[in-house]
Amino acid sequence: MTQKGITLKDVAAAANVSRATAARALNSYGYVGDETALRVMEAADRLGYRGNLVAQALRSGQLPIVGFVPGDIQNPFFARIAHDIEVELRKHRHNLLIASSEENVELEKELLDSLRALSVRGFILAPTSATDSEHIVQLARAGSPIVLIDRVVKDLQCDSVVVDNEGGAREAVEYLVANGHERIGLLRDDSRIFTAQERLAGYQNSLKSHGVAFDESLIGVSRSTVEHAVEATIRLFSRRNRPTALFTVDSLMTQGALLGLRSMGLSIPHDVSLVGFDDFNLATFTDPQITVIAQPISEIGPLAAKLLLERLAGKKVAPRDIRFPTRLIVRGSVARPHRR
Amino acid sequence: MTQKGITLKDVAAAANVSRATAARALNSYGYVGDETALRVMEAADRLGYRGNLVAQALRSGQLPIVGFVPGDIQNPFFARIAHDIEVELRKHRHNLLIASSEENVELEKELLDSLRALSVRGFILAPTSATDSEHIVQLARAGSPIVLIDRVVKDLQCDSVVVDNEGGAREAVEYLVANGHERIGLLRDDSRIFTAQERLAGYQNSLKSHGVAFDESLIGVSRSTVEHAVEATIRLFSRRNRPTALFTVDSLMTQGALLGLRSMGLSIPHDVSLVGFDDFNLATFTDPQITVIAQPISEIGPLAAKLLLERLAGKKVAPRDIRFPTRLIVRGSVARPHRR
DNA sequence: ATATGACATGAGATCGATCTCACATGGCGA
DNA sequence: TCGCCATGTGAGATCGATCTCATGTCATAT
Fold it and tell me: Is the model's pLDDT at B1 over the cut of 80?
């Protein structure tokens, strides 16, 4: 069934040389006679020889594969990054193996284990938990190059590419405050997640610096899917004395909030003002369009890939912590609150 | 740098047996004494032994990896399928390597080549071209199990999972005709793509069966991205005697059409009725919500994975061509046309 | 008592590419 | 002329897991 495949041995035989010489000719190292080299090359492409990557990997200890473990590949944010990483890696003849952790630490551990067993060369990782990081630290200690994206973890020094979550959240809340809001709701995901922590901090810092008291009852927690966010939004806005504005920490939650508010008959921005973290295509489809804190998504993937490739090439420098700024994009989802 | 890693040899030494015996104990085949087996197991997990998949692959000729080549991983349709496939494969300890073809035949060839060089065990593929299929046929002939999804190609008999594109398109157009439309526009992607051909056929067949003449000037062609679709929509609706209704062949195009029409100040469904192929989250976010032809996306990935796994397990049956039905979901984007 | 077969184990080959080392050959300086 | 070095090539080891085959033990049947 499975075709035999041309091996180096076949090429060597065809060129009437030993395997060693054939290898030398094809990989151009050591001494090889000019004429011999030519004969080998010629034989190789006459037979359509293509090296067996698995065999090479066995010797070198590593496959030309990089593992990517995002929180959720269906999240457009990660899908975009995955795509960008892949393009960058292909330029260097590497493959990308995506294993989505579903924001589940246990699954994350398993996935890393199985990628490790595959002897992938390096990892690009968006850790699910900022604190439960023992497995990642071990991975790093075992010598695997790692680049963290979107999130970092404690106890680990390695290259990372993240955005200014605290600053972005602060800017969002400040914008709402500037528009006269004080009862500002926050819809966030699990506090295990690094970005959730930072964005919460930005929210709190901003309130504090404007002398607005922090009110626990304005915080809604949800998993990062549209469906969960709908429910969380409804819960949050069903309480008495509901928020006049809402800040959502990622685009799926923003979409969920949109649906939830609509189902409650609350109109934006008339009844509720809304600012979301992370821009998304659909933000401009709705009426009104949604004001967001945009992240430079298109830069994250390529940069992460480059950092990793440098490590794979043996670059030894101190860990690089890249942090991109965010940007407020004002559209139409914020208005001054009504007096009741 | 890279940790040495525990090999079978280490385990064997620790358990005081030969590598052969250790292998037998761990993989439970052949004869092994009970006590010996226990000793080996114990040694294995005391040392934290985990087989080297690359070495295993060298012997068996195949890595526990399946390649997935979708048209575009950023398209939510394929992202969803990729995710589902991955989940299914993991149950069988296989990894999924995603390599997006960007709807480019040349890139598709390269990707398949590089996956082949990696000795992946099988392929799940959404071919970019329905006719330029020589490379896929060769791949199949070389013995690689292949499952085609969403699209099939000529000259190749293999398992496939697609939807009833012709029927779906027909139903969409029929619904528009039933609402009094005759000038029905079609926004479709490159006719190289299988689904585009079938959906065009459905469109034409439906018109014909209702005695509506086919008018070339009602057809817009665009790449399958929101941005391109916006432009194509604008071009299509800038002509004199524009369509009163539009049928778009996938969700990204539907979104593009939405934006394009809005930018031209055309309201839905007042000025233009709209039906899209493929349901999408945002279809319910817009006002009005969009009427669509839904495909059973959640079934495609798992089924494709299952079919492939069966082949990998050695199942020999005639190629299975699965074709799912589609379903019209009526929402609010269609109305009767105005008299002008 | 001896043959037979079920059970148990290890030595060594194998997968394919690459690397080390040993062995040639020839040219050139001393 | 001898010796050394640059050049060219091949035999064999190696990576780690697995498989074949040979060898060795016992217990039971004859």
Answer: no
Residues B308 and B66 sit within 8 Å (Cβ to Cβ): yes
A275-279, B26-30, B200-204: segment of lowest average pLDDT: B26-30
Model confidence pLDDT, tens digit, residues A240-273: 899 999 999 999 999 999 999 999 999 999 999 9
Beta-bridge mates of residue B191: none
Going from the C-alpha of B227 to that of each of B110, B256, B287, the distances in angstroms are: 27, 6, 20
Find residues 262-301 of chain A whose CB sits inside 8 Å of chain B.
Answer: 281-282, 284-287
Structure tokens at B115: 């996956």
> What is the per-residue pLDDT for A207?
97
Nearest to A77 by CA among A334, A293, A310, A319: A293
Q: Give percent above pLDDT 90 in chain A.
A: 89
Contact assignment for A86 to B65 by CB distance below 8 Å: no
Q: What are phi and psi of A4, to 5 degrees?
A: -65, -40
Contact in structure between B72 and B102 (CB atoms under 8 Å): yes
Confidence class of residue B340 from pLDDT cuts 50, 70 and 90?
A: low
Q: Where are the domains of chain B?
A: 8-51, 60-163+297-324, 165-296
Question: How far is residue A110 CA from its own chain's centroid?
Answer: 18
Using the structure, give the distance in angstroms from the CA atom of A283 to the C1' atom of D19, rounded to a whole number.
60
- Is A2's pLDDT higher than 60? no
CATH of domain A165-296: 3.40.50.2300
Question: What CATH architecture applies to the domain B8-51?
Answer: Orthogonal Bundle (1.10)
> Nearest residue of B to residue A3 by CA position?
B142
B51-109 per-position pLDDT tens digit: 999 999 999 989 999 999 999 999 999 999 999 999 999 999 999 999 999 999 999 99
Q: Is A319 helix (H, G, I), strand (E, B) or coil?
A: coil
Omega cis (within 30) before A269: yes
Domain pair A8-51 / A165-296, same fold? no
Q: At what angle do helices A134-141 and A105-117 cross, to 10 degrees?
A: 20
Domain B60-163+297-324 sits in CATH at 3.40.50.2300
Nucleotide with minimal C1' distance from the CA of A30 is: D8
Distance CA B282, CA A256 (A): 10
- Phi and psi torsions of B186, nearest 5°: -130, 125
Give long-range contacts, CB 8 A cutoff, 24+ apart: A133-137.
A135/A108, A135/A109, A136/A112
Quick check: A50 and B281 CB within 8 A?
no
